[in-house]
Amino acid sequence: MTDQTSKIYKLNFYDRLEVKFLSVFLPLVIFFAVLSILLVEGIDYQKTKVQYKKAQQSITADLLALSGEYLWNLDKRRLGKLIESQLVHPGVTGIIVWDEDAQVFIQQGHQEQGENANLIEEPIYFQTDSAREEIGKIQIFFTDKYIFEAFITRVLQNLPIVLIICISIILGAIYISQQMIKKPLKRMVKAIEETEHDNFPTPISWEKKDEIAMVIHSFNQLMKRRQDLHQENKQLASNLLEAQKIEAIGHLAGGIAHEINTPIQYISSNIHFMNSAQKRYVSFLNSLKDQLSKDSDTQNTEEFNKWVEAKIEELDLDFISEEIDGCLTETTEGLTIISDIVRAMKEFNHSGQKDKSQVDINGCLKRALTISSNQWKHIARVEEQLHDGDCMVMGYYNEINQVILNLIINATHAIEDHKTERKGVLKVTSALNEDHCLITISDNGTGIPKDVQDNIFLPFYTTKEVGRGTGQGLTLCYDMIVNKHKGKIYFETEEGKGTTFFIRLPLR
Ligand SMILES: Nc1ncnc2c1ncn2[C@@H]1O[C@H](COP(=O)(O)OP(=O)(O)OP(=O)(O)O)[C@@H](O)[C@H]1O
Ligand SMILES: [Mg+2]
């Protein structure tokens, strides 16, 4: 039998709603953030490229416009300054001016190589009075590497800002979802947890009018319905307990009547015997009085003695005297048996004892054995091994009595069904431990077959014929011990050898 304790569902970190939310939306948001930056900066990149093309033309035009005059005048200083002013542009890496002898006249910067490099080479003309003469050439080295670098720099600069904004939005969304979804959910879980201890939570209030309000409304209705059902169940359980008690007592009634009837029979025959004895004594006394009144002298005579002896013999007074003692002892014993049974019956169900109180377990065991004595007397002998001293637990008196009686009757049925030559053994024990009392009820009866073991606590499960069992006994025992007393009930059994039921009751 497994211990059915309720468990509260614990969430793993990765199962939490916000973590799931984050794991789905964070990559998405990062992806879209990066994509949007690439898009915006990509457009900017394309624009810068167009501007770069225009800049190439304007730089070339500016250089060609003035370099002809400076080269004609061999004015290296001014030409150098002009080149310097154009090298400021990030797209220009170097400029070389060649004279008409194909000698380098001036060179500044460096010659960019590679796929980003671009070279523009133009002849330099000078307009004399008569003609336009070619006096050299200019080479301008361009690169668009800086555009890509600027693009990457801007992406790297903007990405953290965009990510911070996106993550803040996600955290904000999680916070709002917490408030909107998790808060009512948590309240519902708390309300459900409260019902664990048979408390019924006050209805959850939710001011907003939204879908959550709908769920909470349905939840409150469900809780109300559960509360009503719980009350109905309680009532049914108490009715069932009463019914089972009456049924058990009904089964025992015949036996109890027989138990009481036997002493009543011999008490009545003893009383009959004592009545006739009393009559004989009275008759003897009356005869004696008559005899004495006839002749006062006769009392000392031998004749008188003979008369007395004859009278005693006639009335069988010696036999009566011998029997009377035994009769009285037997009658007293019979009356004790009757009063024990009647007391046990009376004490078995204290109708006033509805609340928890101190219950004497040894008393319960003895009482149940007395009430059921006619059931086991002819088929088993009882072994009692009870805790020496008070064995008190805080519990429901009537229900503990009922559980013990059910288990004793089950045990006697098992012994009866085992059908052996010798009398069976019904053993009851009680032991007091630090925080609980352990009761055992064992029999050496049939034992419980493997395929039956899982079912015996189920309502209405019985292997007995109609009229002998209804299958409610152990269900009620389980409810009373586990649910009502927060104790435990379990068994050990071996087919053909017997069964022991254990009841563990907390002391308070
Ligand atoms: N000590 C035992 N030895 C063998 N079988 C048992 C024992 N106690 C219970 N059982 C089995 O468990 C079944 C259920 O027991 P339970 O007490 O619930 O119902 P019942 O005795 O059949 O009927 P009742 O409602 O009158 O008690 C029994 O029918 C029987 O098969
Ligand atoms: Mg039973």
UniProtKB/TrEMBL annotation:
Its EC number is 2.7.13.3. Pfam families: HAMP (PF00672), HATPase_c (PF02518). Keywords: ATP-binding, Coiled coil, Kinase, Membrane, Nucleotide-binding, Phosphoprotein, Transferase, Transmembrane, Transmembrane helix, Two-component regulatory system. Residues 255-508 form the Histidine kinase domain. The keyword Thylakoid does not apply. The keyword Nucleotide-binding applies. This is histidine kinase. It comes from Candidatus Terasakiella magnetica. The lineage of its organism: Bacteria, Pseudomonadati, Pseudomonadota, Alphaproteobacteria, Rhodospirillales.
